[in-house]
Here is the input.
Amino acid sequence: MKVLVAVKRVIDYNVKIRVKSDGTGVETNNVKMSMNPFDEIAVEECVRLKESGKVDEIIAVSMGPKQCQETLRTAFAMGADRGIHVLTDISLEPLSVAKLLAKIVAEEQPDLVILGKQAIDDDSNQCCQMLAGLLGWSQGTFISKLELSENSAEVTREIDGGLETVQLSLPTILSTDLRLNEPRYASLPNIMKAKKKVIVEKSPDEYGIDIAPRLEILEISEPPKRSAGVIVPDTETLLEKLRDEAGVI
Ligand code: AMP
Here is the structure.
């Protein structure tokens, strides 16, 4: 079985995001970048499937500037076998990512595609659903458990108010939620081996996809600063403040 996993290079989740002074976006210069955390979970799941003998090959795909190759190398160090890098300096919208992935799926014919449930930079949560729509495939979003068999995948999904278990016929597209697994740290020998794994570089034009942005960002601004809290001496004062100052009771 062949599995395709999408890995996005994003600002590291530990970095405090700074908005550019002209409000056109967030500062990425000299900022630590890493693999999107949900994609690390996706890679980990693929590697576990390979270790259990259910998957033979893991292909990692990343789209964006040349540094995405580092993200692919991280996926290799975790256990992915080979990579496809769609090189572009244009910021990709989810629909463009989904269209490019659909082309790669048509070429590679995987049985399973695993994405993160959302990229933590733009928080779109759209690529998985759009890809399933474009391909006409079944989809299991926000999964916290996966049981893979030859022709189907049984997944547990995190939904409002509980968990839902669904059976999907293969090929299918899944998106990972936080509780699916805990990604491993790559070992030094695996980081060394990752240097030798092959990345094929492609351009959006080769896939015939027009990636021109359809959306215009009007402004990005910092959230309003929170004022400092106060310690009140007793519950009487707290109630007074809630009633007279905050007007919430
Ligand atoms: P989104 O719908 O943009 O929140 O992204 C959901 C998932 O789609 C991510 O977790 C990735 O698995 C995949 N994805 C989005 N953008 C890219 C990209 N530029 N390169 C590779 N995968 C991506």
